[in-house]
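Please check this today:
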Amino acid sequence: MIPKNELLFLALGGSGEIGMNVNLYGCQGKWLMVDMGVTFADPAYPGIDLILPDLQFIEEQRENLVGIVLTHGHEDHIGALPYLADDLGVPLYATRFTAGLIRGKLEEEGIAKRVKLNIVKPGEAVQVGPFGVTFVPLAHSIPEASALLIDTPLGKVFHTGDWKLDDSDAVLGKPSTPEQLAAIGDQGVLALVCDSTNVFNSAPSGTESSVREGLISAVKKAKGRVVVTTFASNAARLQTLGEVAKATKRRICVTGRSLDRILTVGRATGYLKNFPEPIDSDAAMMLPGREVLVVATGGQGEPRAALGRIAEGTHPIKLTAGDTVIFSSKQIPGNELAIGRIQNQLAAKGVEMVTERQEHVHVSGHPGRPELEAMYGWIRPQTLIPVHGEMRHMMEQARFGLANGIPRALVQSDGEIVRLAPGDPEKVGHAAVGRLMLDGDVILPADGATMNERRRLASFGQMSVAVAIDGNYRLVGTPEVRLQGVPVEEDKEDLLDEACDAAADAVRKHKGDLAALRESLRLAVRRVATKWTGKKPVVDVLVIEV
């Protein structure tokens, strides 16, 4: 679908799910992309860490794509760029801090020279094809988060990105004032495309400065070494923890590659200037516990992150009874088991743990209902388009927006093409959407043959059978059977003996061609496994002609 004299909206990710945000605006034959993020794999994708959006729709008309505009530097908004942006061949637009994070990713993939990255100042406007885009600063948990005021011949769209309201002095950056946002509303806004993450929260998200006091209180109560884990990209929280370390007279140690990257980019772009000079893990372990504050990645239960390795005892930072771990982050739905596993490992060491349930050690970066209501009043859109949420979040925000005076609300999901103008908003088509997985260095369909095979192996195990035959299809020697992941344990040798007998019998009874023999062997061996275990393992067959 090539947009005509109309304004279209299409989400290829992030609508009906939290994460993997990719949004397209279409007008006068051209498309503008907003964000290109990833989501993190769950146990349904064994062996996979990252899930990428399938951009088939826009790849097939890449000549009509004029650019990619990035709202901020979180992984669910920029994480797919190093894997997919080069193929699209269009310029990127981002503020300096966000661009610093993106540049590092592009350099790691060796494509930094091939992808044009334009730096835009907060509050600045750029023209990208038929789209005028103004970067409107908003508060979030990372510097230079921006809403986008997208000006088109058919009307203006206010695309919030991730945001919150922080009525205290912002820890990093200067968000727009209510007066500035109301002035945008005075211009007339066709549609508000808005973050839905915390729509069920009846209270505001809270200020970063209030977390500082809560963290200082929690750290002062700690008797030994303290480890604080938070979202690696939460630069505001990293700045806060630097202030907490100073206030509690502790040296700070930062451990985790992604935290190092945020610290490096933050300092290079003028942030985190007063952050205390960190010490390394070895130096931290040489100091008395009461003199150390460690900031670590891994608060969502990632086994290879710093906290996971600390809990296992494989990290240079060692914790013992009386030490404290503070979880200064929200538990993302789906990560409960992984986080619980790490907390149990820490509990077994006698480590004390503090979460947001015990102390005020975290605030969200997304708007609660009072903040949404305030934004509605400032922007005063004709239509509300909820995004950045599961269906329950988006439906609730639509109801909430209508109840607070917005004339219309339209709930869409990934792949649904919405015409915003002319006329009333309506769904006018559907685009192909899907997921890709990053498997090692290879990008594959998330539900393609590779993943389906891996799921079968994980669920049922694998067996292999090898036989040698002469030119008359007579068995030479004895069959060989091997197995992996088939639940037999102490009965393994008995099962293998029976499977070998079944394979030999299949050769003796064989009538037909080589393909038929392979299938007879596969079924014969699998029947034995099913009789012994109730499972139907994957069976590989090798026939050697001698």
